[in-house]
Design a protein that fits this description.
150 residues; mainly alpha; 0% strand; rod-shaped
Length: 150
């Protein structure tokens, strides 16, 4: 046995080095997966936190959450309402970038704002997810829409 070990010592050292290298590579890959999973989880939690903030804002500003746009238009509250809708779009962006299956939920949040969303034409400054959300919404909701304020 001793002679066999002496004869194969170099081969066994080589195998040991290969196993060590493979273990290091596996460790690096698993660390990368853990970092990616942690980052994804953090992004999802941040998106949920932003959505929760939006819900709190909606509770504190029910006149914006379910607006009478015609009554708001032309008043000092119009700018605040438009910022509220921008915050809804920002919330949608954060949610849809990390949780794309929330598309329908975010479309439902846009429904009370149909008057504003259908009357304004340029949404090109928004993120691609938001642009798509608005485009889908407008395709379904604005085609037969008749502004009630005019």
């Amino acid at each position: 046995m001793k002679k066999w070990l002496e004869r194969h010592a170099k081969a066994m050292q080589s195998v040991g080095v290969i196993v060590t290298i493979l273990a290091a590579v596996v460790a690096l890959v698993s660390v990368k997966f853990q970092i990616d999973a942690s980052a994804r989880q953090q992004r999802e939690q941040s998106a949920r936190d932003i959505y929760r903030e939006f819900l709190n804002l909606s509770i504190s500003k029910p006149e914006f959450a379910n607006p009478n746009y015609c009554a708001i238009r032309g008043t000092p509250n119009e700018a605040a309402y438009e910022i509220y809708v921008e915050y809804l779009l920002y919330t949608s962006e954060q949610i849809l970038q990390t949780l794309p299956d929330w598309q329908e939920t975010m479309e439902q949040r846009l429904l009370p704002h149909r008057e504003l969303l259908c009357s304004q034409g340029d949404w090109t400054g928004d993120a691609p997810e938001v642009q798509q959300l608005i485009a889908d919404f407008r395709l379904r909701q604005c085609r037969s829409f008749k502004p009630s304020c005019d």
